[in-house]
Every structure is written in structure tokens, then in C-alpha cells.
Amino acid sequence: ILPELVEARIDSFKIEGRMKSPAYVYGVTGIYRKYLDLCLANGGRGYRVEDKDLEILQQLYLRTEISTGYYHKLHGRDMMTIKQPGYNDTNEALVDMLLKEMEANRPLVTVNGSITLIPGEPAVLTVQARGKEVTVSGDRVEIAQSRPMAEEEILKRIGKMGGTLFKPGSFTVKSQGNVFLPVSSLNNLRRDALEQLEKELCSNLALKQEI
């Protein structure tokens, strides 16, 4: 009944997602986005929800059968789960597919920055994104006893941002002499910097929403 709701000049829709999985939220909002766009483009002409999309909704952990709720009538047996109380089973194969699709379509924020490695001093990593900058310190940099770290290796470690909201942009390495820092230390330095940067970006977004 989305065309009826759009025609009634409703311009904000709340889709229940509290305590739901990312796959549920991604799948349900994606389907509603698809059909809202159809409504807005065609004014409801030829509107029809495809069976495959109804099937996806049914397999994403719904409490009841799909209905129009209270929009067309005040009560009815179809508003209650009489045959199967509780939630429908979730299709795990569908959930896996949606999670992979979600990851592939995730918009990533480009991060630029620099890392400073001076023997005897803590490693320092500075990252910037969307006007925010964060600097973190890590373990003490050592003098390489055998094989010093190449700049390419350092950049490769700092650029590992898989599983985060970020992707690497331009980074520079500032070092003195033959430096060495364990891989685990570099990983921790990168992880700490990205976590703090994410908090900064999220707090800035929350402030804008309040305003």
C-alpha cells in the first residue's frame, strides 16, 4: 500500500529495526527503498510488489505474516500469529548473501595521513578524513639489527583497513635511519587511530543531527 501512503503525502517512514541484525535492516530497507522509488517515479501506476521481494521479507525474521495492518481495517485474525507464535525462521543462506552484498556496497571513507618512526621514540600515526584529524602514539621504535623496514612495507601495513568504514588514501612515512617496529605494533597503531577517527566522525555527525 505504499502508493496510498505516498499519495496521502506521508514523507517519512519508520521501519522497525530495533534489536535486528544488519542483514535484516539492509534487506528490509533496500526493498522499501526500491518500491518507494517506483512510487515516486510512476505515481503508483502499474505498482506491484514482486513475489521474490515478498519472499525475502518473509525469510528475514518476521514476527507475523505480511499484511496491511490497521490501514484498511481495525481488527482481524490476520493481524495475529495464531498458527505460529513468535518469529518465523530466518533463511541463513539469504542472510549470508545480504551480508556479502552489504559489504560489497559499503561506502568507505578515504583516510589520508602520515606515520613518524624515530628510533627510541614512540611511533606516531596521524590520520585525517572529512575535516577530522586524529594522532595516536604507539610502541617505541627500535633500531633495525638486521633488516630495516622498507617504506613499502610500512605503507602496506598502515593501509590494511578491511572490515572498517575506511579505505586508504595518501600516506607518507617520516623516519630516521634503519628503523624497526613489530608488525603487531603497527597493526595496533593503525587500529587505535581508525577507532578514534571513527568516534570523531560519528560524534560530529550526531552533533549535526541535533542541530
Descriptive notes:
Helix 2 crosses helix 4. The C terminus is likely disordered. The protein is α+β, with helices and mostly antiparallel strands. It is elongated and about 75 Å long. A four-stranded mixed sheet has the order 3-2-1-5, covered by helices on one side. The chain has a two-stranded antiparallel sheet with strand order 4-6. The chain contains six helices and six strands; from the N terminus they run ααααββββαββα.
Q: What is the rounded Rg?
A: 25 Å
Which structural class best describes the helix and strand composition?
Answer: alpha+beta
Strand content: 15-25%
Largest sheet: 4 strands, mixed
Name the poorly predicted regions.
Answer: 206-211
Strand order of the largest sheet: 3-2-1-5
List the main descriptive attributes of the protein structure presented here.
19% strand; 6 helices; 211 residues; four-stranded mixed β-sheet; 6 strands; alpha+beta
SSE topology sketch:
Blueprint: H1 2-7, H2 22-42, H3 51-58, H4 92-104, E1 109-117, E2 122-129, E3 132-140, E4 142-143, H5 151-158, E5 166-175, E6 179-180, H6 183-210
Parallel strand pairs: 1-5
Antiparallel strand pairs: 1-2, 2-3, 4-6
Helix pairs in contact: 2-4
